[in-house]
Amino acid sequence: NTDGWVSRKRELGFSETAATLVFMFGTVELLSEESYYNFVRSKYPNAKIVTASTSGEISDQVHDEQNILVTAIQLDKTPIEVQSLNQSEVHDSYELGAKLAKKLSDHNLKHILVISDGQLVNGSELVKGIRSETSTSVSITGGMASDNAQFVKTLVSVDEIPSEGNVVLVGFYGENIKITYGAKGGWDEFGPHRIVTKSIGNVLYEIDGKNALEIYKRYLGEKAEELPGSAL
């Protein structure tokens, strides 16, 4: 059922058939329904369609949940290249990033946008792998898919019904595009200062010689039943 689609903004001169790149964000449940993808494909027949599950969608100043949000982009002077790979095809997330970056043409590459599975992929290692095969002059931004903090599965794809374990890279090329970016952490201090006594990469095991999960449970109290989501 594709009834209920609402167009919130349309730029003068935009053409559905000339759209270059489409982002399709929504819940795991909605994105799993083939009819929605087929409808978007029919609207933008020549675009690369990148799909990812989220914990909410933002349109202008509106934050939506339980919806699908589609953003279509028409690039008249900027070529793009889109590559994807599944976590199951490699040994680890670092290799996944490195192999994906190698698949992108590096000639006149200006920026890489990363859309990654958020449950099966280690984001830190993924980015290290991408950077290992990319010039430092190329900027890299992006994000990881979500499932509304359920921590069960996330979905990502390009030009197909989304599935688990996928990572998509969008490369932007040429001199006609300028991309800048900024980042700000949203974490606050929690409890007294402690020392991490055991970790592997970005995975935390012990704090002050004690099991990290047990410490979190002690501080969260009844909210511990909602882990891992309540730790956010």
How would you portray this structure in words?
It is a single chain. The chain is an alpha+beta fold. Helix content is 19%, strand content 29%. Strands 5-1-2-9 form a 4-stranded mixed β-sheet. Strands 6-10-7-8 form a 4-stranded mixed β-sheet, with helices on one face. Strands 11-12-13 form a 3-stranded antiparallel β-sheet. A hairpin with a 2-residue loop joins strand 11 and strand 12. It is globular, with a radius of gyration of 20 Å. The chain starts with 20 loop residues before the first strand and ends in a 12-residue tail after the last helix.
Q: Quick summary of this structure?
A:
The chain is built from five helices and 13 strands. It has helices spanning 28-31, 34-43, 93-103, 123-132, 212-220; strands at residues 21-26, 48-53, 57-59, 62-64, 68-73, 80-86, 109-116, 139-144, 156-158, 166-173, 196-200, 203-207, 210-211. A four-stranded mixed sheet has the order 5-1-2-9.
Question: What order do the helices and strands follow?
Answer: EHHEEEEEHEHEEEEEEH
Helix/strand-derived category reads alpha+beta
Question: In what order do the strands lie side by side in the largest sheet?
Answer: 5-1-2-9
CA-atom Rg in angstroms: 20 Å
Q: What kind of sheet is the major sheet?
A: 4 strands, mixed
Distance between the termini: 34 Å
Strand content: 25-35%
Shape from CA axes? globular
Number of strands: 13
Q: Which blocks of ≥5 consecutive residues have pLDDT under 50?
A: none
Percent helix range? 10-25%
Summed up, the helix count is 5
Q: Name the average pLDDT.
A: 90
